[in-house]
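Our preliminary data section would be incomplete without showing what the modeling component actually yields. Below, a chain of 184 amino acids is followed by its predicted structure, encoded as tokens that our downstream tools consume directly.
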Amino acid sequence: MSEYGAVTEPGTLRIERMLPGPIERVWSYITESDKRRTWLAEGAIELRVGGSAEHVFRNSELSTADDPPPAKYADYPEPSLMTGIVTACDPPRLLAYTWNEGEGRESEVRFELALAGAQVRLVLTHARLTTREDMVGVSGGWHTHLGILAARLEGRDPGSFWTTRMKHEAVYDRMIPQEGAALS
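Predicted structure:
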């Protein structure tokens, strides 16, 4: 398993992580607003196909570091809202929903969980991304957010959100070809 994600086809990112179990605990960090807020965003998710998914992002609150958003993200308001519709749900193993529903740039996020001994294998797939810029930004964002999730589950400090995000985004910018083909 690579530290970095892979572009599995144009417009699709896949990242795998091994997390401390049990699987129900990891599921709760994906589906429960108060726990999800500690690593990604708060908001209700109706755990049924056709249910709504809401994320309210406050990225600057995800770490104790006092680093402001870089210029690239300075104009994005916080809190920032993302809405979607649940497309698959099989607790505690699968949750998928659309991302940016109704904004003309809908994509889909899929969380798959599987037991791997005392750990849980998380496979995150973000599909239907339309531009290379979206691929780079989404890749760096998910990489950073999943790192924060791992830190929370392990009881560690996650470090600086913005500094870490920009570091990972730069790596993905070098890795993702201009044509959006598979990572090298």
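DSSP finds four helices and seven strands in the chain. Residues 140 and 166 are 7 Å apart (CA to CA). Preliminary results of this kind motivate Aim 1 of the renewal.
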